[in-house]
TrEMBL record:
It comes from Streptomyces luteolifulvus. GO terms for molecular function: branched-chain amino acid transmembrane transporter activity. It is found in: Cell membrane. Residues 328-378 are annotated as: Disordered. GO terms for cellular component: plasma membrane. Keywords: Cell membrane, Membrane, Transmembrane, Transmembrane helix. The lineage of its organism: Bacteria, Bacillati, Actinomycetota, Actinomycetes, Kitasatosporales. This is Branched-chain amino acid ABC transporter permease.
Length: 378
């Protein structure tokens, strides 16, 4: 019987891997083929979803895994966007050269801004980060010789090479897709490293993490630095895609919208940034179509509705749907004629041929070791 059970478990694991591979292949085909199927404006929207996904991946490091609240993420986004725009407009550099400079500059900016995080937490930290998001657009307007002031800067978009045969929107899509895939891979590997485990320990219990040897000051500051770096990369991609930057495009509303998108997508989730980015991109347009007079009210009501249906975010809702579907799987018949139920949450399979009923298991667990057998009177 144990041999049959082992064979069944191996077959189930093999089937699970095959199913995951097929899903990944289908997703890859859909992502690669999207710019050839949709209209240019729809391709632009998909490209912006990828841009926001990079920004939310960085915010997820800070909020979802680091446990720190930030309402100033839009400021790092703006810093990366203006770094790329100034380099393209004032210094006439190549587009690819702006990406590492924006990433490094925002990493250093986040490193310096992470110092207040050492002594502040909760609402106080959120207020300080919000002040940064409010202050930066005003500063950009004052630096008119470099930033163009209130008029902003207009720059050229990356042009597709002749050998590619792609339109401009398609080339931008694949360019941003490559950077987004690399950024998400870096975020995934970072969370699985010692840094990611240290961030989780700090988030769950600071005192216990410090006793275990985690340097709180270092990892809190690094959380802001990594988060700022991802936001800077997203801002650089934003400049590539839009071709125009202005201070009014990066108000504090952007920071609040990014945080709302992360919460709706799912905190501390691998796919939460992607789902949250789609929410940030498409839901405001839906709110505008539903009510041109008060789109903000509709947007807020939609957020409340989503959080009521999915308290753990859209990523958590997808997991709940998958678990419910697994619980409804029909029973299968084993070679010896017994029936196997669906897999239990612990990964084992419950069979109808179990020789020990649940009551007997409970009674056997309650019996002390070495106790004499009970009689019928007992």
């Amino acid at each position: 019987m144990s041999t049959i059970t082992g064979i069944l478990r191996a077959d189930g694991a093999r089937a699970g891997r095959t199913r995951a591979a097929l899903i990944a292949l289908a997703a890859t085909v859909a992502v690669v083929g999207a710019p050839f199927y949709f209209a240019p404006f729809q391709v632009f929207q998909l490209t912006m979803v990828l841009v926001y996904a990079v920004a939310l991946a960085g915010l997820n490091l800070l909020v979802g895994h680091g446990g720190q609240i930030s309402l100033g993420h839009g400021a790092f986004f703006a810093a990366g966007a203006y770094t790329a725009a100034v380099m393209l407009d004032r210094f006439d550099t190549g587009h690819l050269a702006t990406l590492p400079v924006a990433a490094a500059g925002c990493f250093l900016l986040g490193l310096g801004f992470g110092v207040p995080a050492l002594r502040l937490r909760g609402l106080y930290l959120a207020l300080v980060t919000l002040s940064f998001a409010v202050f930066l657009p005003l500063l950009l307007k004052r630096l008119e010789p470099w930033t163009g002031g209130s008029m902003g800067l207009t720059v050229d978009k990356p042009q597709p090479p002749a050998w590619s045969g792609l339109a401009e929107d398609q080339w931008l899509y694949f360019l941003v897709l490559a950077v987004t895939a690399f950024a998400l891979l870096v975020a995934r590997n970072l969370l699985r490293s010692r840094v990611g485990r240290a961030l989780l320990a700090v988030r769950d219990h600071e005192s216990a993490a410090e006793v275990m040897g985690v340097r709180l000051s270092l990892h809190k500051t690094l959380a802001f630095a990594w988060s700022g770096m991802f936001a800077g990369v997203a801002g650089c991609l934003y400049t590539w895609v839009i071709g125009f930057v202005s201070p009014d495009s990066f108000s504090f509303v952007l920071s609040i919208t990014l945080l709302a998108g992360l919460v709706v997508g799912g905190l501390a989730s691998l796919y939460g940034p992607l789902l949250g980015a789609a929410f940030v991109m498409y839901v405001p347009n839906v709110a505008q179509d539903l009510s041109e007079a008060a789109p903000g009210v509709v947007f807020g009501l939609l957020i409340i509705a989503v959080m009521y249906v999915a308290p753990a975010g859209l990523a958590g809702l997808a997991g709940r749907i998958g678990s419910a579907a697994a619980r409804r799987l029909p029973r299968t018949r084993t070679p010896d004629g017994t029936h196997t139920a669906r897999p239990t949450p612990s990964g084992t399979s419950a069979t109808s041929a179990d020789p020990t009923p649940p009551e007997a298991e409970v009674q056997a667990q309650a019996e002390p070791v070495g106790a004499p057998p009970r009689t019928e009177e007992e």
